[in-house]
Amino acid sequence: MSATAHIPGTTSPARRARMWAAWVRPILRNRLGAAGIGLLTIIGFVALFGPLLMPGDPNAFVADPNLAPSSSHWLGTTGLGQDVFHQLVVGTRATIAVALVVGLLTTFIAAAVAMASGFFGGVVDEILSLITNVFLIIPGLPLMITLAVFLPSGTITIALVLTIAGWAFGARYLRSQALSIRERDFVAAQVVSGERAWRIMFIEILPNMLGVLTAYLINQVVYAIGAQAALEFLGLGAPNQVTWGTMLYWSVNNMSLLQGTWWTFVAPGLAIALVSAALTLLNYVVDEAANPRLRARRSLRAFLQRLPPGSYLGGRATVVARHG
């Protein structure tokens, strides 16, 4: 049998399409997922087109310092006379860009290490597990601070630091998934047929980890937004570059809390909270869509709640709704 022949039970294109539809459709039909997608759509639009709709230097002095929100300046001004709304809109692109890059890089590295470790086993597994364990035992925040101090300041440095410090946990978590899929019959059939290792890992194993990888990617984006803001809040970013984190940094430097100018730190803090909430809602729905057990429980609950209240099963619907 040739190496390119299709083995019954493998992940065919039709099967991959069914797997995609099985967990993408529930996301679009779920209210929580719709709310999360709606928020992310708005934030994505601001990140893409905000700097074009509000041109100019966001660090420019436009009015008196510490002006309260008004019709002239929707979110007031900073302690240096800069427009907070302008900075918030322009800073969205840099913040979201770093978060997406870090999320994608950490997910790719973690998935590649996990699949290689789970597929090859033996010495490869031991070496990759050792490297992963070394990064796991190093405290994350001190590692990020140390790297950020000795590297040139900027968004590229922040993205690099967060990627170095953030991939190991995912590699350890995804390794167990890869080991489980490696033992399945359709993977063994591909190995016996002489298929190349990279094709088995990325064409056969990877699609079966799609739900877990998506949930992990969303978590990593949330991690990157918070960690980036934390590093920039500590002054380890580029102070002249406008991001949500540097807005918090200058707010503290200008003693906004003591002066009562709450709008200078509430605006970027609320933006971080909204993005994290939207991603968390989306992650919850992705987990439900990718987990057949959660989908089955949801379908059973909805079926029982549609029954007539006078029937025996209809009476049991209340119990199911309360206790799952």
Mean pLDDT: 81
State the share of residues found in helices, binned by percent. over 70%
CATH superfamily of the largest domain: MetI-like
Order of helices and strands: HHHHHHHHHHHHHHH
Quaternary structure type: single chain
**Form type:** elongated
Tell me, what is the CATH class of the largest domain?
Answer: Mainly Alpha
Q: Low-confidence parts lasting 5 or more residues at pLDDT below 50?
A: 1-9, 310-323
Query: What count of helical segments does DSSP give?
Result: 15
In whole angstroms, the N-to-C terminal distance is: 49 Å
Number of strands: 0
The biggest sheet amounts to: none
Query: What is the number of domains?
Result: 2
Which structural class best describes the helix and strand composition?
A: mainly alpha
At CATH level 2, the architecture of the largest domain is Orthogonal Bundle
Query: Which strand-content bin applies to the residues?
Result: under 5%
